[in-house]
Design brief:
The structure holds two protein chains of two kinds. Chain A is built from 18 helices and two strands. Chain A is mainly α. In chain A, strands 1-2 form a two-stranded antiparallel sheet. In chain A, α9 runs antiparallel to α10 and α13 crosses α14. By secondary structure, chain B is an all-alpha fold. Classes of the chains: A mainly alpha, B mainly alpha. Chains A and B meet through α1, α2, α4, α6 and α8 of A and α1, α2 and α3 of B.
Chain lengths: 447, 44
């Protein structure tokens, strides 16, 4: 076998190796293998095309184009590199966007060298947004996140980078670094936890026992406190929720009994009122009965007196004064028609004579200041004929009362004269006498 | 712990479209055949 064939064989071997690795997304490994393949045979077009494709897979589009252009130079026809170049050039705007992203990435490298990490992070975010498959940009951003201790973001970016190229040395190195940082944290936490344990050897065994914490020491006290809180909460629930319900029921029962009692009282009151009315009616009935009895008695007495006076009047042996005494006891209103005519007949004979006599006697008594006799006589005159001598008898009765210092009766009598016999001399005199009585009353009041 | 400055040195500027021509010309295309020929010429 000639050495050229051997070289071609070796080149193909490494191409196959690179292809295997590219298939499993081991792009870094694939690049190494394909570079070796091209070192054995630079005209291995397939290996160069695949190398370009691998670069393209890592977002290094220009590197890919370089390899495809060289490949095309080695074989200008029946070369898939022509297709790749054509596809990339088909969308110039996309290529321009990618080129801008690469340009910014290069700028970020400068920023990083000038301690402009914050600006570089901002720019790299934009680069990744514009060109998501750019592995180097992911790795640089992860490095900056690690440097600025933003580990969560670094981990997120590295995961995406790892998916693009599973064996990239830089990616793996940073992931390892992150894992170390995490393990350090865990160790620190364990160390902190470890302070709560006591380790000692018992024979060949190592015993790890938790240190009795203050919380555990106070467990009994805490239990009691918890029970107390529970009791307090239970009491509060009973006081605020159950007791009002019970009280409400009790108050409802009391209210019902009060209502029933009130109804009973109202019924009793009604009954009492009814009984009172009945009693009143009975009383009024008895009063009427009594008045009827009195009327009957009066009627009987009037009839008896009239009968007696009638006999005396017919007999002619009795004095006028005695007959008048009997006649004045007769109530004319209680008499029947015939008895009334008898009464009127006797009165018509007797009253004028007796009025004249008693009136004259009264005048004499007044002259002698015997007011009691005058009052007695004049009262009889007035009973027989109130308007005797145009009210002068009644006015004289007022004078007699005045003489007796009985001002109340005097005033009433004068007023009767003024009212009933207006326009008479007696009324004028009575009016004057009334002012005198009033004046004397005022004088008495002043005294 | 990572050394940021050292890690940063691992990142090289990426090629831009304007650099393609230059990159193509500067590509090292030497392979084993070239080396063998050089060796043979030197041994002659």
């Amino acid at each position: 076998m000639e050495y050229t064939e051997k070289l071609a064989y070796q080149s193909n071997y490494w191409y196959n190796d690179g292809l295997k690795k590219a298939n499993i997304r081991d792009l870094s490994g694939a690049i190494v293998s394909l570079r070796k393949s091209l070192q054995f045979n630079r005209e291995n077009v397939m290996a160069r095309n695949l190398l370009g494709l691998v670069y393209y897979g890592r977002g290094e589009v220009v590197e890919a184009l370089v390899e495809w252009i060289i490949s095309k130079n080695f074989r200008s026809y029946e070369n898939i590199a022509n297709y790749y170049i054509k596809k990339v050039q088909e969308t110039p705007s996309e290529l321009e966007t990618i080129n801008q992203a690469i340009h910014k990435y290069n700028q970020c490298l400068v920023y990083c060298q000038q301690n402009g990490e914050d600006l570089a992070i901002i720019q790299l975010k934009k680069v990744i947004a514009a060109h998501p498959g750019f592995l180097k940009a992911h790795q640089l951003l992860a490095l900056l996140y690690l440097h600025t201790e933003q580990y969560a973001k670094a981990r997120q970016i590295l995961r995406r980078a790892h998916k693009m190229d599973i064996t990239n040395e830089i990616t793996l190195n940073y992931m390892h670094e992150l894992n170390q940082l995490r393990s350090q944290k865990v160790a620190k936490l364990k160390e902190e936890k470890g302070q709560h344990t006591v380790t000692y050897n018992l024979g060949n065994e190592t015993i790890i026992q938790p240190v009795s914490a203050s919380l555990k020491d106070n467990a009994a006290v805490l239990t009691i406190v918890n029970i107390a809180i529970g009791i307090a909460v239970g009491a509060a629930v009973v006081w605020f929720l159950i007791a009002p319900a019970v009280n409400q029921k009790e108050s409802q029962v009391v209210n019902k009994s009060v209502i029933s009692l009130s109804e009973q009282i109202a019924a009793k009151d009604t009954q009492i009122e009814t009984l009172k009315k009945e009693l009143e009616s009975y009383r009024s009935t008895s009063d009427e009965t009594e008045s009827a009895l009195q009327t009957a008695s009066s009627t009987q007495e009037s009839y008896e007196a009239l009968l007696k006076v009638s006999r005396q009047f017919d007999g002619g042996n009795t004095s006028n004064a005695d007959m008048l005494e009997g006649l004045l006891t007769v109530n004319p209103d209680a008499l029947g028609e015939q008895a009334k005519s008898v009464y009127d007949e006797i009165a018509g004979e007797l009253f004028p004579v007796m009025c004249n006599r008693l009136y004259e006697q009264a005048k004499s008594s007044m002259a002698e200041n015997d007011y009691d006799s005058a009052v007695t006589d004049l009262e009889r005159v007035v009973r027989m004929d109130e308007g005797y001598d145009d009210g002068a008898a009644l006015k004289l009765l007022g004078d007699a009362y005045t003489g007796k210092k009985d001002e109340e009766n005097a005033k009433a009598t004068y007023e009767r004269v003024v009212q009933n016999y207006a326009g008479t001399q007696a009324a004028e005199d009575a009016q004057k006498a009334l002012s005198g009585v009033g004046g004397s009353q005022n004088q008495d009041n002043n005294e | 712990m990572l050394n940021f400055e050292e890690e940063l040195k691992k990142f090289k500027p990426s090629l831009e479209v304007e650099d393609i021509e230059k990159a193509v010309y500067e590509e090292d295309l030497t392979d084993m055949t070239d080396i063998f020929r050089e060796m043979l010429e030197k041994t002659k």
